[in-house]
């Protein structure tokens, strides 16, 4: 069986107020093309379909159109779970009607115990679950963490599992040892979020969502597909696409990168060079620029946007350097040395003798007041 | 064929910030009971399912549960159109999946031309249409009014109608001659809203929504079901329920009233009597009180609410009287007479001689300044 495993579509997401709907629509079209090209037989969506609990009308339309193409037009089964960004109850609207079309949507604990069996493989659809939900569902006050929640749920699944068939779990969670990016919202404040890999022992494939890196975890059976697009600049170097999973005698999961409409890149450089030599980089991509020698420029963002219309973030290269140096060495220096270094970082010039004297006097006054 | 015709559910509606969801849930349960009791074969919902374009999670859940009971549990066909309160595109989410369950949901012009045929009857599902939408759809700039929009649409329907079968139109509009209530929002600002009855000539039954009175129009073939509940105090004397429509050789439409969880009533009375003799009326109902002799009471709303927890609106009986008298007679009186009458209305006492003199002096000063 050939399966497309995707997750973290985050339809409706913006970066610095810039809407990404056109980029998402383009990428979903690429997925549809791959479905046809690879003769995919089943599509798995492992949560965070939308970016917000209450998605916009346009976001809902885009998702409906994607699912329509897969499930109504191509009659492909689709298995989906809700993620921590999704509003489970809103997303679940209509799920009873969708089922008969083999669009299986799981948005609550009670949806996960009865598997969907396709081609002699049992698929368990386990949505993102808050520990508080599990606590109520099992009427068990000892459940406090994600680990405890999923342990309990999977224990229940295991108790009724058909050992004669291969089994797959689809879920949305933070597996222990997984590599994070900046754009994954913490699952819950305070609670331990990690779920140990051992919880999923005995499953032939674990199709996960939540972490945005397609190689966020090293395992033979547990895989993240990664997100649909780069959703933060910390993801600039991550590949994005889908996992092509083949389950027959054995199980294989290969990450298949796709080319987005516009890439998202972090570029460090010199202000003047970026303005002058813009032919060397694609002007339409999304950028975070970290530029040197830009302090003297008035409103550099506007000037740069004239050349790079999708520039989303602009930083002064010096700032980050200064921050780092001061952070590292502050413990080892005297007060006057710290101030001298700070002034140097800010102005690129050492303090004059006169300035040094003024600061020394002020420091004395301040210390006098304190003691 | 036995049909239940309902409309204007307005799920999620509030009156003066008071949520009515529990009342709506109760009333929908009564409808389900009637469906079983009357052995209903088809349910028609003629628009304004929700009260707002973006209904709350709870409103969506309540509607889904209602439809689930009808369409999934009882396998009854359901025909529904969007109304002017509904967000057509959000409401339409999933409609392609619903169709195969015989839950037919029409939310756009293009949905209305192909009838749903059940038991040899053609049902045309015509959602609420803005003239601007019809103008674009037909690429016809002469379409400016609701009348012109629906004329054009029904003309198109008539052109392809099967004359051998009975035909029903389900729609949400303001039929000419219909009786309004306070809680129907105007369909569009400026445009003529009325659609003449003659537009629907040749249809055996026209199941309408929009006007909240179940007897809003006198016709042999055109009927409003009225709203699910009394949604404004102007509807206090209207019956609420559903229409039981029987289509066989002939067509019959009987209004069937249902008892709500709490009634909504307007009561005029005396403050002291309402506080003292509260056993004479149901304390749990929704009320608008118009009370006499209440001017001297501090915070009467709080006192009354202790007795009538669902009191939603409180008016001073005197106010409305005073307003009217001043409006009528102001042209025929001198300035001092108008002020004397106003003071009398407000305080129930005539002005003293001293007060009269002060007002006369002030009037003189004001007039002196003006001329």
Automatic annotation (TrEMBL), chains A, B:
<dbReference type="GO" id="GO:0006260">
    <property type="term" value="P:DNA replication"/>
</dbReference>
<dbReference type="GO" id="GO:0004519">
    <property type="term" value="F:endonuclease activity"/>
</dbReference>
<dbReference type="InterPro" id="IPR041796">
    <property type="entry name" value="Mre11_N"/>
</dbReference>
<dbReference type="InterPro" id="IPR026843">
    <property type="entry name" value="SbcD_C"/>
</dbReference>
<dbReference type="GO" id="GO:0008408">
    <property type="term" value="F:3'-5' exonuclease activity"/>
</dbReference>
<dbReference type="Pfam" id="PF12320">
    <property type="entry name" value="SbcD_C"/>
</dbReference>
<dbReference type="InterPro" id="IPR050535">
    <property type="entry name" value="DNA_Repair-Maintenance_Comp"/>
</dbReference>
<comment type="similarity">
    <text>Belongs to the SbcD family.</text>
</comment>
<keyword id="KW-0378">Hydrolase</keyword>
<keyword id="KW-0235">DNA replication</keyword>
<comment type="function">
    <text>SbcCD cleaves DNA hairpin structures. These structures can inhibit DNA replication and are intermediates in certain DNA recombination reactions. The complex acts as a 3'-&gt;5' double strand exonuclease that can open hairpins. It also has a 5' single-strand endonuclease activity.</text>
</comment>
<dbReference type="InterPro" id="IPR004843">
    <property type="entry name" value="Calcineurin-like_PHP"/>
</dbReference>
<keyword id="KW-0540">Nuclease</keyword>
<keyword id="KW-0269">Exonuclease</keyword>
<keyword id="KW-0255">Endonuclease</keyword>
<dbReference type="InterPro" id="IPR004593">
    <property type="entry name" value="SbcD"/>
</dbReference>
<protein>
    <recommendedName>
        <fullName>Nuclease SbcCD subunit D</fullName>
    </recommendedName>
</protein>
<dbReference type="GO" id="GO:0006310">
    <property type="term" value="P:DNA recombination"/>
</dbReference>
<feature type="domain" description="Nuclease SbcCD subunit D C-terminal">
    <location>
        <begin position="260"/>
        <end position="344"/>
    </location>
</feature>
<dbReference type="Pfam" id="PF00149">
    <property type="entry name" value="Metallophos"/>
</dbReference>
<dbReference type="InterPro" id="IPR029052">
    <property type="entry name" value="Metallo-depent_PP-like"/>
</dbReference>
<feature type="domain" description="Calcineurin-like phosphoesterase">
    <location>
        <begin position="1"/>
        <end position="214"/>
    </location>
</feature>
<keyword id="KW-0233">DNA recombination</keyword>
<comment type="subunit">
    <text>Heterodimer of SbcC and SbcD.</text>
</comment>
